[in-house]
Amino acid sequence: MGLFNRKKKEQETLAAEQAQKKEAHDDCVKRQKEAHKDLRWPVNLPVSQMRAADGTVLKPDDPLTDARKEELGQLVFEPKLDPEALEELPLHELMFLKASYPAYNRYSALDHFEENDRVLYNELLRRVQEAETYYVLFDLATGAVDAAKKTQYLYPFLFDGFAQLYLSEEHAKKAAELFGKLYRRVTVLKVQGCGSDKESRFFTRLFNLGIDRIMVDNGWYRWAIQRDEVVAPPFFLNEDKRPLEAPALVRAMLEFKGEASWPVKYDNHQKRIDAFRSFMEQQTIASRFIIPVQFLDKESGKPLEASEVRTRMGTAEKNIIVNVLPLRVKAKDGKTAEFLPLYTDQEEFAKSSFPGTAAPNIMNYREIVNVIGRIPAEQMTGIVINNLGEGIVFPRQEFLDLSQKYAPKTQE
Predict the structure, then answer these.
(1) What gap in Å lies between CA 352 and CA 387, rounded to an integer?
(2) Do the domain assignments include residue 178?
């Protein structure tokens, strides 16, 4: 009888604890509902705060009905979110909850807000990390076409500093259509996701492009993430082995060209263009570049193979001449102009075709200025950065004057 009574008492104690927990849970939910009874649920936001020429607000239909919002919204009042309860929800419903949490917490503090918000954040991040396919908006205005190779090189479309990523092709195409009403020339490309069996280079490429912010599902219940939260930055045990890259300059060029090529008029448009150009020019001064060169025999002037160059570099009398390789461009009038091509990284350099004996040589702005100074003006019209990429062109003298333009001003 003693054993039976003890088990019965344990069961009664457990039942009492569960009843107490349920009462506390129900009280919390009731209290939080009452505190937020006058607050409305969020709506999906437009892809841009700007409107189309006819005044249309640029957003798709809300994917959630009022009834579904009310049903989903009950999770906001839960004292503790269960991660497993979120796994079956579609992406836009997760984002609706992610948008609701901070809005409701600002109105009146929610219990365990930070903990629950992190549960939602982690689930959204998992969706992005495990997605096999991304649908990304790419900018037709910032890329280039290689007619010889019949290849088009494009870059992610940046809007307000964010790349635009979608996990649904339907959503991506609708967003491209809406941006088109703002005269943005964008297209949707399907790229390998981080959850694919094959290696995904999308986020890795974003490092070289200097793009560190991504907007997921813009136009629905969008969510902004940092690139480094999805994929860790490239790490090199030996920094000397790190390949050349100029992410700040590449990002500046993309933003400048994207804004300058946008055929619209609005307040401060030219000021934004000028600001982007100024930052791009300053980054040009601060960056290093790959320049295509040929190593020539000093006596015969013939190109040397890489193996011969390496051999001679180890001798006292190298007998080598370094010759930069110009990029010849035919103008509409039929005349040919020569530009000094500069490349921000190996991937951009590899796009162009140079003689088999050409080699990449790395130089900074000052060294490039010295090289240009030894070339007669009639033989070098200007400089082009990433000719099969952003294609930023500087007239010769304008490039030479950049350091003076941004030199610290001395007080008189």
Answers:
(1) 8
(2) no
Percentage of the chain modeled with pLDDT above 70? 93
The pTM of this model reads 0.87
Nearest-5° Cα angle at 342, 339 to 345:
155
Extract the tokens encoding 226. Answer: 């940092």
Q: Are 243 and 126 contained in the same domain?
A: no
Between helices 365-373 and 269-286, what is the axis angle to 10°?
80
Position 360, amino acid: P
Output the CA–CA distances (angstroms, integers) from residue 258 to 157, 185, 318, in the order listed.
Answer: 8, 10, 46
Q: Of 111, 130, 149, which marks where a domain is finished? A: 130
Q: Tell me what pLDDT residue 238 has.
A: 65
Mean pLDDT for 62-67 is 94
Full residue range of the structural domain in which residue 276 is found: 236-412
Backbone angles phi, psi at 57, to 5 degrees: -75, 130
Which residues is 361 bridged to in the sheet? Answer: 291
Using the 3D structure, point to which of 70, 105, 130 is the last residue of a domain. Answer: 130
Residue type, 371: V
Would you give the DSSP letter of residue 212?
-
